[in-house]
Amino acid sequence: xxxxxxxxxxGCQVPRMCSAMQLPRLHAAxxxxxxxxxxxxxxxxxxxxxSLSRMQVRQLRCCPVAMAQKAASNDGDVVTGKVRVxxxxxxxxxxxxxxxxxxxxxxxxxxxxxxKMILRIEDTDLARSTKQSEVNLLEELKWLGIDWDxxxxxxxxKGPYRQxxxxxxxxxxxxxxxxxxxxYPCFCTDEELDEMKRIAASKNQAPIYRGKWGxxxxxxxxxxxxxxIPYCYRFRSPKDQEVTINDAVRGEVTWNTNTLGDFVILxxxxxxxxxxxxxxxxxxxxxSHVLRAEEHLPNTLRQVLLYKAxxxxxxxxxxxxxxxxxxxxxxxxxxGATSVGEFRDEGYLPDAMTNFLALLGxxxxxxxxxxxxxxxxxxxxxSLGRITKSGAVxxxxxxxxxxxxxxxxxxxxxxxxxxxxxxxxxxxLKSADQTPFVVAAVAAAKNSLELLPDADKExxxxxxxxxxxxxxxxxxxxxxxxxxPQVANAALQAYESGKLQEALESGADGFKKWLKAVGKEQGRxxxxxxxxxxxxxxxxxxxxxxxxxxSMLMSENGEVNAEAAGYVPLAQxxxxxxxxxxxxxxxxxxxx
Length: 592
What we know:
Helix content is 50%, strand content 8%. The protein is mainly alpha-helical and 592 residues long. Strand 8, helix 13 and strand 9 (316-320) form a beta-alpha-beta unit.
């Protein structure tokens, strides 16, 4: 993205090239860096460029300090002091995949550097916040494998961890700002504020506060209070100043305070405003790194000013790009599932979700094409220096593929009870017992799965007997014309004599032995034998290994809900096959 476009989008200044003038500041910020590293972080010097990759050169142009940090650390993170990060969701709805990625990146960074992960509930929106939403958020985070060291459910020495329980603290700090002269009571009515906005719009001015209460005398303030006029608290924004942060993802970002105006920190009903809460909470909870989505970047100016006014050192900020839909717009409900709970209910696995989310805006670098990571491997590989600035597209097809990789690689001792429970829950099985039939069904379905619900379709196909539809398909015309009744009659005769049942009861090897004998008798082998026999016994032209499949069907012992699963037992299959063969021309030797 061009610098001017990014500046317009984010409301801040983004330098395109560093200069030698920045060397003293770089040295002051990182005195331990060698002079060669400092030089590499600053200029266009050809010698420095030769030792850097093209990606590193682009980073160098955007942020000299970040580039110096990259050169000084193998993983791209220069961390001094203890790491304390936080994830601070609002309990007003489901956990969006964007929020889940933010939580994951914070968790990975904390675990990578032996730090603390704090969960804070930002429930100041009293009208929309619900306890159930909070419960769901915690459950979905835990489902993803994300835990926390401090939070509303585990406690900690920096609590309370719900903003609704911290109002006394916010009032204390608001009063401090008023006492220090950097905040003041504002008695403007909504009508007066609307009129200010109208006038500003007519003059093409920014819609910032231009009321009188920032200049009011103590007598005027007291008079308004005595009259019982409701008032809020506003922060007195400094004029003609530039505020700069070195964003861990975006590099150097600068704002001019003249674009801000005096902003509300405490409403007239006593409720604190978001930016004030966040600044007070992050400061008093000693948060070292604030890692969040880029949509919060415009809030950073207010928060940094509040930090400084309260006497706190601002944290390190890192603003990650948004997650985009395939059409490159912001991912929303109109694009389908967007919450962790929805994906969980669709049959996605937590390890696949965390792996996929981690790669939405981060990569291991150094030309790595790796795509599969466990949580432990992500912890070891993760670094802020590898978070990308550009938006990441949420590709559900890729997520499904990745989920299939995890699902198929699960050991049987995990997958069998999981699928048994799933089939029982959706009514295909009467119970979740791990019977020989269930074990065989899992083995048959395993390699065809991407999502858990795919197993439902697979099991139903195994249990059904769509003989008429298959026989009518042009795909099987050659098989049918190759004396299909000859093979079908062999199966029917073996069933009537009990030899087929004996073969099936003896397992896959017994079935193979019987089938080989049929082939020898009829002069058939390979596809000429297996394809018509598959149709005769399963009613399908395609499917898993035929001996394993028919052995599985024979092992069914009342576990299946026949109506729900569309199960056709062997006896009924043979009846349908016999009726079908009776309508077909018979083999030449039989006719003779």
